[in-house]
Structures are given as structure tokens and as C-alpha cells.
Design a protein that fits this description.
The structure holds three protein chains of three kinds. By secondary structure, chain A is of the alpha/beta class. Among the domains of chain A are: 71 residues, no CATH class; 93 residues, no CATH class. Chain A contains 14 helices and twelve strands. In chain C, the strands form two sheets. In chain C, strands 1-2 form a two-stranded antiparallel sheet. Chain C folds into two domains: 97 residues, no CATH class; 220 residues, Orthogonal Bundle (MetI-like fold), CATH 1.10.3720.10. Classes of the chains: A alpha/beta, B alpha/beta, C mainly alpha. Chains in contact: A-B, A-C, B-C. At the A-B interface, helix 8, helix 9, helix 10, helix 11 and helix 12 of A face helix 6, helix 7, helix 8, helix 9 and helix 10 of B.
């Protein structure tokens, strides 16, 4: 598919609050919705999310459990396989639309053009197969080569991700690896086909901080080396600040704020983002004062609150005139450049609250 | 929804129920306070049995000789990576597990070998909060019966009856007292952790040991629970031992902090001293590894110390200083002599031969140290090993010297050599250990496992 | 690993010894404790025309006048070195392994057993192959089509299979295929060595009825296991690699599901060899289960004792095999 065609097809999506530079995006997600029909009701795990990731760039998706951040990534990969799932919207990967595509076509892209690493490498690797076998399998699905060639390739990858004595460790089982080594092996498996998009779903949450630092470094180095697009899903704003170029903050299955990482941390425009920043104890500062938590709990995805999903927990919900926060769902609006926010508060109010009330307390 | 009015509830409860026994924990003044819990030479080994006759062939040295004390009203934070023995330590000091050796004194009384029967009254005073708010509550019991269990087990009849007391507790932790008859699955993760806290507080304990109390919770909920624990400490004069892997949380909640590595405390210091000027290289590495939520600091990569490889096995911990296999400052003495946990600065105890921000504890070895560091800069690991080996003779002598004495004798000399050491570094880097973060660090891991 | 095997084998032997002691005690000690004298016990073995001399002779020959532990020792010794029984004028040598001598039917027990064990074993093997294939396949399909008609129907049949006793299904099959439409003229046992084709053909109906019962259980087990496995993280990983769904199901899903099933299978199989009483009775097969029933009816203690020991041996042995196999199929289990 030519660039022109791609742009043309991408056109209608742009009015769904698309970022400006959709053309050179390697991955473009437009108004993605993933709903699950359960006995308890319709679970709107992802309810209209759009974003772009360019080659060599890292998008951080931040949110709490149930915010839809993991389901979004599974949707991109075509792994939301439940029979009760309905998916709509568009996912453009390098000019190819995936939501409407033949599932077998998408399968052939998985692991080759787009790959994924998961939170807990112990449960994400098959316990009964050797690490090498699993990497070889990943390579041979997409490359018609002998086992021997694939094995050489697997050793090469294990070496590349920093596993000592790769020729020996290739015959180890996942449980024989330490947590950090296992995650390295997982990364080796994901990168064995040189994918151009890497989705990392909380890749360091189960790891110790020193190992986390190693893994983040590794991902960063590999990204530099291969120029791939990376989506980093995490709940840890520290990790995002460390590795992301752009940030997408999700709440209740929707994107509440999106923008370049510097602006998200310097000039956050959504009360939920403020809440996240205020909830985090900081290692770099002496916060003798109390943390500023977000009151209440994350919403149920079956009964998402009306209007702005965040309004029951938002301290500023009564600020805008009338009942607008409870009745009208705020759409993403451009703050400036690539910075978007979905909030009913006026721009002046947001700037004032952030600079006067929130920022000084952080 | 009960969480939405949590602050009110807590304030409410503070007014009518809680009697503040102690003012909020001031910083620094902790040294004068009465010692509530004293742990001396504590070890916990889990035997490994093998062979036809199941003979003991070794042991997992989960906790291997630690000393510390907890003073009334303070919060002692315990940090370390997984497998450092911090959780085992928590279970041993609450006597959920029996120590292998060492003593535990609570309020001056030795409770190390108390029988189950004699421990029972002590259990009122020492309570534990667990990490998993899902696993630690029996799904078949109502909240009321879970929170009132301590009364039944201890045969205590609170004033005004059990139900009233339980409802008071639920209110205290910010839950709706009307939820008395609900089951755990009807609550969110944060609420369940509140239930766990209510249960722990039922008998008005003096010491609460919390093992990763917030690590299973979402960020926004985590902050609620951290604040709740703060408030309760102020209101009830509680003493906490908080075990956590998250250094940011520990910094926020603790007055003093113990850093554990492979069953040992490597540094034990006041919060500010520890975070502002960590003395043990491991502490420093650990803290530098925590991602800071400030994108502007990215790129200042030189601050980060990347430790190589994994934590060694606690079955056969490294000789001498346990951290020497991963330490960029390690010299010969570190391999042979175990450093003692010494108070090098007021309120800061460190077990290291070459502490940061202080005169070297094994100054004779700094010659080796500088040599080794230069070598590692130039050629890498292989040469480092070699140069260390060639000077093994010198090191053997050094190893014989008692580190504490040596420090005093030669502290002046040490300062000089530390200055040398700094000049040996790349001029633009502020931190001497920046060199440990070489670009090929990842592949270098192959050299140590 | 070697130490582990030795320890397990040793444990298995001890267990068998305990089983034999308990069984022996039940059959020979309990009647004594219940007040029966040695003479009364001996009388059972003489039959109708008992006279004081023959009773006394039996009592002496069988050791009923000895203390119980001597009797037990003699029994165990017989297993390894054989024993001599004097009965009337003749002396019978019962060579090792001597499981005793039936004075009711005047035969050594062991040769009887060696005739019957192959029957029971053949029955169990054939049925096992069928129920594994059908049970596991049905379970996998049900799990993949959870909630769909295929799943509901097969689980209904499975429920029926679990609920219907073998003497019901077996009789139905008997009536239908032997009497109504006589496709099978006989279900008599033909040794495998003699004619494998006949062997399988004659055993087919008993296999099917026994397998029906077990398939149902295994289908349910497999379905539950598959449902759990397919929601594991490593299945998601397998899909993320771009593997075909069939590969994901068979190589990643089924592989993990089968591990616990193998364990249960080992125990079921071992147990079945000595206890397929109903099937053997319904289809008139001369297996050890049916043999034991006959012996119990005749109060023929040596046979009951021998069958108990043989059955126990198969159970203990298959358990042992399962434990060892487990290490091979689940690399996380390594015995040291």
C-alpha cells in the first residue's frame, strides 16, 4: 500500500482527535474500541482510543489496573481473542489496516512485524519447554530455516540481550533463569524477527529495581539499534519519565491526556494526571508531608460514570458551570502542539490549579 | 464509596475513639526514644536436604546475622531486593517463624524462645499486615468476623461489645461500618488492605510489622493506604516495621531505614542521611536505579549505577563482603573479610570497607582500589581480576588488619587516597562510580553470575 | 535422581510389606481375635468329610498352631523361596513365588493368577487407550467450544458416563451386540500371543464399556485443565509469536494440560488391573477381579490374600512409574 493511499485511508480518522503527524506514524490507532459482553453486562475495556507511534519513538501508556491500557495493546496485536469481544476502530501498522484484516494475515504479522513482551516472564514463558526451543519456535514460524540455523540465531539473540554463556543457557528451562535473565530471554524471543514495533506490557513491574534499570537500558539500546517503535505500558510514572517520548494517560478505558513527556510532567492538564503525580512518593525529594491521593477507587468498566468518567473522584468536578462534568463526556482537546487533554475545566482554571495548588505540593 | 469519605472517617474516629498516646514522630530525635524491639544476631536458615537419607547438605541463609532495634513510635523501613531475606526477617521478628539463632527482645523481654502458649499474650502487642489483600482474607468469612477474629482468639471482650468495636475499627480505617456483614470479594484491593489493617489494629498493638503493605495496590490507592498508616501512627502511637521493595515508598514512610542484601543489613541509617548521602555502595546503586518521575533528569545518565548480574544465591553467599561480586569498588579485602556494621556517622551504620562519602575503612586496600578502577576503565574486567590477583600478597596482609582499627589509624591517609581516586576519574563526572556504567555493561554480565 | 529412585523403590517395597502384613492380619489374625480357634480355621480347609485326624494334620501343616508372626513369616518366605504343603498323603511343593495353596480348590494360587493377570491387564490396556483418545479429544474440543452446543452435548454425555454404572452400560452393550445384533459371537479371552486380532476383537466390547465410564471422567478433567491452561500467560505469548492456533492448542495448551492427567491416569490404570470386577463379571472374563470375587464367596483366604497383594503391587508400581515419569514431563520437578 502506498503512502498516498495510506494517508487517504487515514483521513477520516483524523477528526477523532488525531495527532498531527499521522503520516509518518508507523502505528496509527484510531478510535479503538474493545468491548466484552459478559454475564454482568457490557465491559467497555477500551472505549475510543487514538494514538500514533513513529519509528524510533517510544509511547508510554500510563494508567491503573482496569484503565484499559493492556487491552489496548492486545487489541493492536490482535490478541483480544475472547469470543465475547467486539472490536471496532482502526489499527494501521505500516500502512496496513489490522482490525478488518484476515486473522491469519494478522497472525503472520505478529511476532514478525510487531512483537510483545509481558509483565511476568515466568508465567509468560512455557514452563515445559527450554528457553531455546521457545525462541527457535518464534523464529521458525516466520522464517523457513532449519532448526540449526534458528538455534544459531537464538544464541545470537540471547547474547545480544546480555545473557551470559548463551550457548549453554539456551538449553535451560525458564524456571532455571533468574527474573531478570528470564525477562532478557523474553525480549530475545520478541526481537528474534527484528520486529519494527515492540509492545512492552509492564516489562519491569515484577522485577527488582536494579534489574529494572538493566532491562530499561536494554530496551532503550535495542530501540536505538533497530530504530523500532516502542509502546511501553506501565503504571509507574518514573519508568515513563525515563523512557517515553510521548505519554498517553488512560482512565476508564479512555485517553484523558496525551502529549510529549516533558509537557505531561511539566504542564499536566488533567486532574487525574495531577492525582497520579500527587500519589507518588518521590525518591528524589523529601516529602515529609502527606501524599495527595486520588479519593475513591477506579471505576467499574461496566458502569462507567456518566459525563467525565473521572468526575466522582475529581476534586474540581464542581468548578465548571452547570452539570456538565456529570452529563457530557469531555473529548480530547488540543492544549498546544501535540498535547491533548479531555477535561471540562477551562484552560485558565487548569493552569491556575496546576501552578498554584498542585505543583507546589509535589 | 466508603473510600471517598475516608478522610472524614479517620478524622471522626480520631476525635471520638483514638487516644493519641504520642505526638507525631519527629525526625532525628529517635535516638533518645525507648527501644521497643531489639534484635541481636538474628539468623534464619532453611535446611536443604538431599540424598538417600535426606541429610542436610546446606541451608538457605535467608537471614544471616542481623542486629537492629526499633524505637517506640518510629517507623523502621526495611528495603532490599527479592531474596534478601527481608520478608523472612519480618516473619521471624513476629515469631510467625522460629529463628535459627539470635535473640529478639520486645520491651526488654526475651521472646526468642517463648512457647506458643506464652507467645499468645505477646501476639496482642505485635501484629502483622501482609502484602496480598486478596490472599490474606478468608473469602468465606464476613468482614465482621475477620476483624473480630483477634478478639475471639485472644478471648478479649472489648468495651461495648465486639460488634461495636469492629465497627469502630472499620470506621477508623475509612470503611463504612455498615459493611460489617459483607464478604471480602465485595471490596476493592485498597479496601481489602484497609480490612487487613483494621484486623491488625483490633487489639491495640504496640508494634505493627507490615510486609509490602501497598505494593499490590494501584498508585492512587497506594497513596490512600500510606496516608492512612501515617494517620494511624499519629493517632495510636504505633510503631511500624515496614518491609518494602519500593524505595520511594520507604523514603516517604520511614524514620530510619535498614538496607538488606543477602540476609545481612548493609546499611542502617536515618532517612535523611541515607537518601542524601548513602554510604554503602549497594544502597547507592539501589537508589540510583529507581526511575525518577522527572523527564528532565533523563540523559543525566551518569548518575545511574548499573549493577551487573544477579543477586548471588543465599545458599552459598560470597565470602567476605557479600556484595563484592557486584561492587565496582571491591578490592581484595572485600573478598576475604566481612565488614562489620559500624556507626561511621551519628545515626548511620554501614558495613563496608570502602564506604561512600567517608574515609575508607580499609585504606591499605585503596591502592588496589585505584589500580583496579583505572584498569577497569582502560581494559575491563579481565585485567581487573588479574591486577587484583597480582597484588594478592599485599591484600593478604591487609586482610589481617581489623578494619575498625585500621580506619582510625589511617583516616588521614585514606582521605588523601580518596582524593587521588577522584582525580583518576573522568573529569566531567561528579560521581566517582560513574565509570561502573560503561556502555558494554550488558555484555559484561557474562563475567559474573 | 538415582538416590531419588532408590528411595522411592525402597518406599514402595516397604509399603507392599505393610499392605501384606495388614491383609494377613485381617484374614488370619482378626478371626482368631474374634474367637475362632485354630481347629475351626483348619476345619474350613478340609471340606465336608472332616475327621479329627485330617483337621489336626491341616492345622499342623498350615501352621495354624503357630503364633501369628511365624505364620506371616512363613508366608513371606514362601513368596521368595517357595513352600511345601503336606495335604493328606501327598506333599505339594509350591515353588516361588508361592502365594499360598488353595485347599478349597486344591491348587497353587500363583499359577492361577498368572493365567488371569494377562486378562485383566489386556482389559485395562485396551480400555485405557480408548478412553485416553476419546476422553482427551472430547475434553479439548469442549474446552475450545466452551458454552457452544458441542460442549454442552459432550458434557451431558460425560455426566451420563460418570453416572451410569458399568453393569448397566455393559449389559446394554451385551444385549445389543451379542444378542440383538450378534456382531460379536463371543467375548472370550484369546491371548494376545495367540492371535492379536482375535484378542482385540473379543475384548472390544468390554473395552468400550469400561472406556465409556473413564472417558467421561477424563473428558471432564481435560476440559477443566484446558480451560485453565488456555488462559495462561504463556498461551498469550505463543499467540503473540504468531503461531497457528492449532499449534498453540496442541503444542502449548495440551502439553501443559496433560501433565496432571498423566498422574491421575497412572493411578487409575494401576487400580483398574485388580478391580475391574464388574466388567469382568458382565463379560465373563476370567480376570483377577472376577477371581477374587469367587474366592471371597468361597472364603478361600489364600486366593483373596494373593489377589489383594497383586492388586496392591500394581497400584504401588504404577504410582512409582508416574512419579518418575513426572520428572521427565515436567522439567520444573527435579528430584534431588
Amino acid at each position: 500500500m502506498s503512502k498516498l493511499e495510506k494517508a487517504a485511508l487515514g483521513e477520516p480518522a483524523t477528526d477523532v482527535a488525531a495527532p498531527s503527524d499521522a503520516q509518518d506514524a508507523f502505528l496509527s490507532v484510531r478510535d479503538l474500541r474493545i468491548h466484552f459482553n459478559t454475564d454482568d453486562g457490557l465491559v467497555k475495556s477500551v472505549d475510543g482510543v487514538s494514538f500514533d507511534v513513529r519509528r524510533g519513538q517510544t509511547l508510554g501508556i500510563v494508567g491503573e489496573s482496569g484503565s484499559g491500557k493492556s487491552v489496548t495493546s492486545l487489541g493492536v496485536m490482535g490478541l483480544h481473542r475472547a469470543a465475547n469481544a467486539t472490536v471496532s476502530g482502526e489499527v494501521w501498522l505500516d500502512g496496513q489496516e489490522l482490525i478488518g484484516a484476515d486473522p491469519d494475515e494478522v497472525r503472520r504479522l505478529r511476532g514478525r512485524k510487531m512483537a510483545m513482551i509481558f509483565q511476568d516472564p515466568l508465567s509468560a514463558m512455557h514452563p515445559y519447554y527450554k528457553v531455546g526451543t521457545q525462541i527457535v519456535e518464534a523464529y521458525r514460524v516466520h522464517n523457513k530455516v532449519s532448526k540449526k540455523v534458528a538455534r544459531t540465531r537464538a544464541i545470537e539473540m540471547l547474547d545480544r540481550v546480555g545473557i551470559p554463556e548463551p550457548a549453554k543457557r539456551i538449553d535451560g528451562y525458564p524456571h532455571e533463569f533468574s527474573g531478570g535473565m528470564r525477562q532478557r530471554a523474553m525480549i530475545a524471543m520478541a526481537l528474534v524477527n527484528n520486529p519494527e514495533l515492540l509492545i512492552a506490557d509492564e516489562p519491569t513491574t515484577a522485577l527488582d529495581v536494579t534489574v529494572q534499570a538493566q532491562i530499561l537500558d536494554l530496551i532503550r539500546d535495542l530501540q536505538k539499534e533497530f530504530g523500532s517503535a516502542v509502546i511501553m505500558i506501565t503504571h509507574d510514572l518514573g519508568v515513563v519519565a525515563e523512557i517515553a517520548d510521548d505519554v498517553l494517560v488512560m482512565y476508564g478505558g479512555r485517553c484523558v491526556e496525551r502529549g510529549p513527556v516533558g509537557e505531561i510532567f511539566d504542564q499536566p492538564q488533567h486532574p487525574y494526571t495531577w492525582g497520579l503525580l500527587g500519589s507518588m512518593p518521590r525518591i528524589d525529594r523529601d516529602t515529609a508531608d502527606r501524599l495527595i491521593p486520588v479519593k475513591g477507587s477506579p471505576p467499574s468498566l461496566i458502569n462507567v460514570p456518566s459525563g467525565c468518567a473521572f468526575h466522582p473522584r475529581c476534586p474540581y468536578a464542581d468548578l465548571p458551570k452547570g452539570n456538565v462534568t456529570r452529563t457530557v463526556r469531555p473529548e480530547l482537546e488540543q492544549v498546544e502542539g501535540g498535547h491533548w487533554s479531555a477535561c471540562h475545566l477551562s484552560a485558565e482554571d487548569r493552569t491556575r490549579i496546576w501552578t498554584e495548588e498542585i505543583a507546589p505540593k509535589l | 464509596m466508603s473510600e471517598t469519605n475516608k478522610t472524614d472517617a479517620v478524622e471522626d474516629a480520631a476525635g471520638k475513639a483514638a487516644i493519641p498516646q504520642q505526638a507525631s514522630a519527629p525526625e532525628g530525635g529517635s535516638a533518645e526514644r525507648e527501644v521497643l524491639l531489639r534484635v541481636t544476631g538474628l539468623t534464619k536458615h532453611f535446611p536443604i536436604k538431599k540424598g538417600l537419607l535426606q541429610r542436610q547438605v546446606g541451608a538457605v541463609k535467608a537471614v544471616d546475622g542481623i542486629d537492629f532495634e526499633v524505637r517506640k513510635g518510629e517507623t523502621l523501613g526495611v528495603v532490599g531486593e527479592s531474596g534478601c531475606g527481608k520478608s523472612t526477617m519480618g516473619r521471624v521478628i513476629t515469631r510467625l517463624q522460629d529463628p535459627t539463632s539470635g535473640t529478639i527482645e520486645f520491651e526488654g523481654r526475651d521472646i526468642t524462645r517463648l512457647s506458643t502458649g506464652k507467645m499468645r499474650p505477646m501476639r496482642r502487642d505485635v501484629q502483622m499486615i501482609f502484602q496480598d489483600p486478596y490472599g490474606s482474607l478468608n473469602p468465606r468469612h464476613t468482614i465482621g468476623s475477620i476483624v473480630s477474629a483477634p478478639f475471639r482468639l485472644q478471648g478479649v471482650e472489648p468495651e461495648g461489645g465486639v460488634k461495636k468495636e469492629v465497627q469502630r475499627l472499620l470506621e477508623l480505617v475509612g470503611l463504612n461500618p455498615e459493611h460489617y456483614n459483607r464478604y471480602p470479594h465485595e471490596f476493592s484491593g485498597g479496601q481489602r488492605q484497609r480490612i487487613g489493617i483494621a484486623r491488625a489494629l483490633a487489639l491495640k498493638p504496640k508494634l505493627v510489622v507490615a510486609d509490602e503493605p501497598v505494593s499490590a495496590l494501584d498508585v492512587s490507592i497506594q497513596a490512600q493506604v500510606v496516608n492512612l498508616m501515617d494517620d494511624l501512627q499519629e493517632e495510636l502511637g504505633l510503631t511500624y516495621v515496614i518491609i518494602a521493595h519500593d524505595l520511594s515508598v520507604v523514603r516517604h514512610v520511614s524514620d530510619r531505614i535498614a538496607v538488606m542484601y543477602l540476609g545481612k543489613i548493609v546499611e542502617l541509617a536515618d532517612r535523611n542521611s541515607l537518601y542524601e548521602a548513602p554510604m554503602h555502595p549497594y544502597t547507592k546503586a539501589l537508589m540510583s536505579a529507581v526511575p525518577v518521575p522527572d523527564p528532565k533528569r533523563r540523559g543525566t545518565k551518569s548518575e545511574r549505577i548499573l549493577l551487573r548480574g544477579d543477586v548471588p544465591s543465599p545458599i552459598a553467599p560470597p565470602s567476605g563482603c557479600r556484595f563484592h561480586t557486584r561492587c565496582w569498588k571491591a578490592t581484595e579485602i572485600c573478598k576475604t573479610t566481612e565488614p562489620q556494621l559500624l556507626e561511621l556517622k551519628p545515626g548511620q551504620r554501614v558495613a563496608c570497607h570502602h564506604p561512600e562519602n567517608f574515609a575508607d575503612q580499609a585504606p591499605q586496600d585503596t591502592v588496589l582500589l585505584t589500580a583496579a578502577k583505572e584498569a577497569s576503565e582502560l581494559v575491563g574486567e579481565a585485567v581487573l581480576e588479574e591486577s587484583a590477583e597480582t597484588s594478592a600478597a599485599v591484600a593478604a596482609e591487609v586482610a589481617a588488619a581489623e578494619p575498625a582499627e585500621a580506619a582510625e589509624e589511617a583516616s588521614v591517609e585514606a582521605e588523601v587516597s580518596e582524593a587521588e581516586l577522584e582525580t583518576a576519574e573522568e573529569p566531567e563526572s561528579e560521581e566517582p562510580e560513574a565509570t561502573a556504567e560503561a556502555p558494554e555493561t550488558d555484555s559484561q554480565e557474562s563475567t559474573d553470575k | 535422581m538415582a538416590a531419588y529412585i532408590i528411595r522411592r523403590v525402597f518406599g514402595a517395597l516397604v509399603l507392599l510389606l505393610v499392605v501384606s502384613a495388614v491383609t494377613f492380619a485381617i484374614f488370619f489374625l482378626v478371626p482368631r481375635l474374634g474367637g475362632q480357634t485354630a481347629t475351626q480355621l483348619a476345619t474350613q480347609y478340609v471340606g465336608k468329610d472332616a475327621n479329627p485326624e485330617s483337621i489336626a494334620a491341616i492345622k499342623k501343616n498350615l501352621g495354624f498352631d503357630q503364633p501369628i508372626y511365624i505364620q506371616y513369616w512363613d508366608y513371606i518366605k514362601g513368596l521368595f523361596v517357595g513352600a511345601d504343603y503336606k495335604f493328606g498323603p501327598d506333599a505339594t511343593h509350591c515353588s516361588a513365588p508361592c502365594f499360598g495353596y488353595s485347599f478349597k480348590s486344591h491348587v497353587e494360587v500363583w499359577p492361577q493368577l498368572t493365567q488371569r493377570i494377562p486378562v485383566s491387564f489386556s482389559l485395562a490396556v485396551g480400555a485405557a487407550v480408548i478412553w485416553l483418545i476419546f476422553g482427551v479429544t472430547t475434553g479439548v474440543i469442549s474446552a475450545l467450544r466452551k458454552g457452544k452446543p458441542v460442549d454442552r452435548i459432550s458434557m451431558f454425555i460425560a455426566l451420563a458416563g460418570v453416572s451410569l454404572p458399568i453393569f448397566f452400560t455393559g449389559q446394554i452393550i451385551n444385549v445389543l451386540f451379542i444378542y440383538q445384533w450378534p456382531i460379536w459371537d463371543s467375548t472370550d479371552y484369546v491371548p494376545f500371543t495367540q492371535n492379536p486380532g482375535e484378542w482385540a476383537w473379543h475384548l472390544f466390547l468390554p473395552w468400550v464399556s469400561l472406556a465409556f465410564l473413564f472417558s467421561a471422567t477424563y473428558a471432564r478433567l481435560t476440559r477443566a485443565g484446558m480451560l485453565e491452561t488456555m488462559s495462561e500467560d504463556y498461551i498469550r505469548t505463543a499467540r503473540a509469536k504468531g503461531l497457528r492456533e492449532s499449534t498453540v492448542v496442541v503444542k502449548h495448551g495440551l502439553r501443559a494440560t496433560l501433565t496432571p492427567i498423566v498422574t491421575i491416569f497412572g493411578i487409575d490404570f494401576g487400580t483398574l488391573i485388580g478391580t475391574a470386577v464388574l466388567t469382568e463379571t458382565v463379560f465373563s472374563l476370567q480376570g483377577i477381579g472376577a477371581y477374587s470375587i469367587q474366592a471371597i464367596r468361597d472364603n478361600d483366604l489364600p486366593i483373596v490374600m494373593a489377589v489383594t497383594l497383586v492388586a496392591a503391587f500394581f497400584i504401588v508400581f504404577s504410582n512409582l512409574v508416574v512419579d518418575l515419569v513426572y520428572a521427565a514431563i515436567d522439567p520444573r520437578v527435579r528430584y534431588s
